[in-house]
Amino acid sequence: MSAALREPGERIGVYTVVETLGRGGSGAVYKVRDDGGDIRALKLVDAMSDQLAAERLRREVAALQALRHDAVPRVFDAEFSDEEAFVVFEYIPGVSLYHHVQDHGPLRGEELARMAERIASALQSVHDAGVIHRDVTPANVMMGPDGAYLIDFGLAHEHQDSRLTRDGLVSGTAGYVAPEVINGAEPGVEADRWAWAATIVYAMTGEAPFGTGSAAIGRTLEGELSLPGLPGASALAQALGEDIGARPGPRRVVEALRQDVDVPVTAIAATRVMGSSDVAPTTVFVSGSGMDDGADAGDGSYDDGAEGTDEWETAPEPGMGTPISGTSAVRRRSTVPRHPFVLVSAHLAGVAIVVLTPVIGAVVLLLASAVARTEHRRALALALSRARKGKRRGDAALQTVSVPWHFLRAFVELLPAFLLAVSVAAVIAAAGVSILRSDWVDVSAYGVWPESAVLAAAGLAYSALMWWGPLSFETRDGARRIAATLAPTRGVGAAWVLVALVVTGVCVLTVYLLDGALWWPLPW
């Protein structure tokens, strides 16, 4: 049996085990009684078999001893030896935010705002002490009799400390790790605040904003988020953005939660609910709070869900509950640079090619969409690989070698948008030709231009549906990534716009000189 596992009645130092409150991959937390009869919560790790877990526990104690806040656990005792390491907290009955929402439903109104404000205040205290929590999740927020508590500092580190991960993996709970951390940045204050905002979304909706498990990593990077139209939803959506500078601070988010009418946002869309899961954190247990000398002891909890599950492959999946529903939602879009002029001019050139040679133009736009979607899948696969295994030499080359597979998958995924786009374009073209050949109008004096106008309308519809059609987010994201690579500066972007305009002009001139479109390889 692991040295961290104890049965009721066994001793850990001067403490007697009463019951097991929870177990993780590297240790366990117990309800214990000291020699004076007081009940405490004790977290124990096997220092011999898992030195990393023991070091995390040492950091946790150092972090908690440096803090002074009513919503942060209070440490009573700690011991670190060659064989075992443990820390003792004040024991207070309670449940995690995850289980509270599962049992009682999402928080609303002032209850939600109070919880958010209290945890934000605790997190600010953590940061003021020079500590980064690194694992703010619904499983690590305790709902005690006197309010919410920020718990489990097993992943916390001081600013000057090196990161503690196994084999280069990013520590944290999938779905609550900021996109910049997934992409390789050091966890910092802003990453903690991002995780706080994701936790508040769970409290509001009963759903993790980006889902859980490995799929949550991709959803976080893709940046697609939908929230119900509730007070504070838009501020939370902005706080979960990729652009760190555009994220509102916790104070502004809490103020928005207390508003009767939410602040305006840039995009409104129908509610889209992420997939749900019945998987809950493996352990929930309880302990201390505020540490001010002479102050009334607050209530708190201790949850070991992240201990021993700090890599995404084995992390618990807190935050998934009953799907939410509604008629409106706040959606945050990806903040990959958009390069609108480059992309609009490229679309214009594509439509011009359709006017000149409709069949080849349609194929060109289809292939361009597939290439864009391939780039999205390549970038996503690279980020996922680095999130799971750390940044390694040859990662980019490996994903580049995998481009044919990404392209094949992208092509298959494009079929719904392609079939819709072709159908709509064909209807527009057929209707336009019918009108031109009817007795209603006489367009003989205008030469090739009426037919070209019909083809242009069909081309615009085709291009638009390939861009905004079914499952097209990946196409847009990939196109923006390609544009960002090809046009790293405004000057280069302007050059690409000029090239697209030249292609458009050449196509229009060729249509005029040839007196119509080229329908090759069709027989007419």
Draw up the topology in text.
Blueprint lengths: L10 E2 L2 E9 L3 E7 L5 E8 L4 H15 L9 E6 L3 E7 L4 E2 H8 L4 H20 L2 E2 L8 E4 L2 E4 L6 E2 L20 H4 L6 H17 L8 H9 L2 E4 L4 H7 L10 H8 L10 E2 L59 E4 L7 H17 L1 H32 L5 H7 L1 H34 L12 H20 L4 H14 L3 H25 L10
Antiparallel strand pairs: 1-2, 2-3, 3-4, 4-6, 5-6, 7-9, 8-11, 9-10, 12-14, 13-14
Helix pairs in contact: 3-5, 3-8, 5-7, 6-10, 7-8, 9-10, 9-13, 9-15, 10-11, 10-12, 10-13, 10-14, 12-13
Q: Please tally the β strands and state the result.
A: 14
Strand content: 5-15%
* Low-confidence sequence ranges: 157-169, 261-335
Structural class: alpha+beta
What is the CATH topology of the largest domain?
Transferase(Phosphotransferase), domain 1
Largest sheet: 6 strands, antiparallel
What general outline do the C-alpha atoms trace?
A: elongated
| Overall mean pLDDT | 77
Q: Could you name the CATH homologous superfamily of the largest domain?
A: Transferase(Phosphotransferase) domain 1
Describe the overall structure.
By secondary structure, the chain is α+β, with helices and mostly antiparallel strands. It has 15 helices and 14 strands. A hairpin with a 3-residue loop joins strand 5 and strand 6. Helix 9 packs across helix 13 and helix 10 packs across helix 14.
What's this entry about, in short?
The chain has 524 residues and is of the alpha+beta class. It has helices at residues 51-65, 97-104, 109-128, 179-182, 189-205, 214-222, 233-239, 250-257, 340-356, 358-389, 395-401, 403-436, 449-468, 473-486, 490-514; strands at 11-12, 15-23, 27-33, 39-46, 75-80, 84-90, 95-96, 131-132, 141-144, 147-150, 157-158, 225-228, 268-269, 329-332.
